[in-house]
What we know:
The protein has 305 residues and is mostly helical. It contains 14 helices and no strands. It has helices spanning 12-25, 27-33, 39-57, 59-67, 71-97, 100-107, 110-122, 128-146, 155-176, 184-205, 219-246, 249-253, 255-271, 277-299. The protein is globular.
Amino acid sequence: MSRPGTARSPLVAPLFVLVASAAFATSGPLARVARPEHPLAIAFGRVLLAGAILFLIDVRGAVTAARRLTSAARNAVLLGGALLAVHFACFIWGLDETSLPAAIALVSLEPLSVVVAAWALHGDRPRRLEALGVVVATIGGFVVSRGAGSGEHRLFGDVLVIVAVVLYGGYVAVVRKTQGAIAARHAAPLVYLTAAACLLVGLLLAPARAGSVVWPPPRHAVLAIVALAAIPTLVGHTSIQVASRRLSPSVVALVSPGESVGGIAIAALWMHAWPTPVEAAGALVIVLGATIAIVSSSSGGAQRP
Length: 305
């Protein structure tokens, strides 16, 4: 019998990282395509659509599960939704305020946030090799960020993305606290719809610097928001919510470096934003770190205290 925090099959961890990373990699480019729509409107649209779809798939089950929640689990769902809302708001707004390569590179610093938050809230200390893998991947993120683009690259946008990075770790750790209280398939729509409600309030209070809501939104923006809901949200974030209950936080954290590598590739092939030699070197370091942590998690490694 496998212990909590490890995969039941050696293929689970690498498959999860591959699928979730590929889904998340589309997030930055798609959010950029949704311009000139307001960044908070983009974030609101993606979580509202994702939450509504999952809720409608099993309305009775979701309502029943919500009614049976303990106060602690309900608070975790609400807090997780609020953290996800601010995470999306800062990330998409940050994309508008800095260059796409810089934003994608900074996302690769999320592993440190995830592991530290899991350690702080759950006492889930990573194995040595897992920690080494995350550190190596994070170093790769720093290498990539040193080669990030110029021109659109601004400090304010970088700060917003870094705030999103920090909040992401808290979101993953808080959602994990719902384990045993509600199934992931029922928790996900509640988290997304809570995030949508928070973002709607945020839209009403958003500072003028973020721009204005474009209504009706352009067709390309609508298509981009639908794709954001379907791919990085329904596939990416839902798989994160499931995996955070079953896999090591170190493995869950490695989706972010994978997202950076995939995002750089998509930006190059789709938007002709080719990585510099420094960015390519950093991507290789990220892959090395991911490999170390995944092999460690799959093989068992040292026991946690």
